Amino acid sequence: MSSIKQKLADTIVTSMKARELERVKVMRNVQSVVKQIEIDRKVELDDAGVLEILQKQLKQRQESLAIFTANGRDDLASKEQFEIDIINEFMPKQMDDDELAALVNQEISEQGATSMRDMGSVMGAMKTKTAGRADPAVISRLVKEALQG
Description:
The chain has helices at residues 3-17, 21-41, 47-70, 74-88, 97-111, 119-130, 136-148. With 149 residues, it is mainly alpha-helical. It has two domains: 3-88, Orthogonal Bundle (Hypothetical Protein Yqey, Chain: A, domain1); 97-148, Arc Repressor Mutant, subunit A, CATH 1.10.10.
């Protein structure tokens, strides 16, 4: 079992004992998504696979949060923010923009990338190197800026 899945299971038990029912509900939801994907793909996910699922879960909730906030639905927005905070507990420490920019520049120079045609290969390498530690949209923006500028 991956360490993230184990941490998720342990945290569910701890939260159940502490009677943190809303927290348990969110973590069980995430756990069920992981299990469903494992059943569908007929594999046991490693940490990288679980991180990918967590990132998708975060992105969905962040999009919902933006919509709810824009439409003045503070009750639903606060629920989404609560879920985002819980999922973030299982994510690795995020890279700051300076670290990320340095890594992007290093990858571009290693590959000898010079134009936007090289963006796909740079993004592929960056996805592997940053696995769960950076938002792909931010990486994409930094790669575009570096290749265009």
